[in-house]
User: Fold this.
Amino acid sequence: MGRKRTKLEGITSVKAVRERLKDKGLEGWQRQRLQVAQMLLEGNLTLPEIAEGAGVGARTVSRVQDEIKAGGLEKLLVKKAKGKGPESWLTKEAEEHLKAKLDQGQMRRGEDARKWLEKELGRKLSLVVVYKYLGKCEARLKVPRPHHTQQKPEAVDTFRKTLCDQLHGKNVPLEEKVHIWVIDEMRFGLQPVTRRVWTRRGVEVVVPVHPRYQWGYTYGGLEICGNKAEFLHTDGVSQEATTIFYQQLAESDPESTHIIIADGAGFHIKEGDERLPSNVRVITLPAYSPELNPIEKLWDVVKDRICNRVWPDLEQLRTAIDGVLQEYWTTPELVRSLLGSGTVPSETNTTARTVIAI
Assistant:
């Protein structure tokens, strides 16, 4: 049942309301309240009809009615001061400690943050309050990048600082054209690759799978300065397969020198190996540091495009992968965006433009 109307006669009048509406200095919310008051005083409409006619909610109409009854039009036209609410339990010191914990990636769930905050503040907290405090610290839920326990940070730091020197150390004549490549390999197969999909709340998402133990490999190379791409499918990874791919890179421009930046996998050909083409030089990345190699991001792109499907055989899967890779060997802009501005691209571009003729 709707709320009954309150008689306002004797408190104010329609005439008084109309006089106040003539004031050009009224704010929008004041004018709207006066229009509601006028409808109430005229007495011809129900509360829901007044709400619909004034374009406000029924609670607003009831509030106007109560305020007129409590203090007339003057009470109606005074905006209530908003309270500041209770003082936050999150002290400055606790906020700084929470930010430090977040920077270290030590909290995976809101529940982890709640347990730590309850211990830090000495009081019980709801998850709503915890998420409010996390928002205050500008916290974001992110997927961490894996970091191998055997990686040596000092080796990574040294590589970043000495890459220019290593490029200079290849002693390429200034008059000679140079291509600088980053390379890596991806294994693909008939094991399921699943990725998240958009759906509605409460809907369970299911994708078909048919696991089989068949796979192949794709060698990939992205040229940093020229934004070219080269790829090679193989049945496996080996020094023989790597030699064939290096030869493919060398033959993409036989009159030039090709500098290849690759990780130290045992099946890669290292500098000084007699199987290296004569116009190829090699720089080896530090161990367990895939984040230094920008081509790693390409494999994520490929897997996103072939996921959540059952492929009848390797040939059809390989064809689908070719469709993704073709976009990169035909569109330099895509290669450029994938390479980004990390250590290897930035240092290499700087060196190439000032020392090495390209």
The CA atoms of residues 158 and 228 lie 28 Å apart. Residues 14-76 form one domain. The longest strand covers residues 178-189. The chain has three domains: 14-76, 92-136, 154-354.
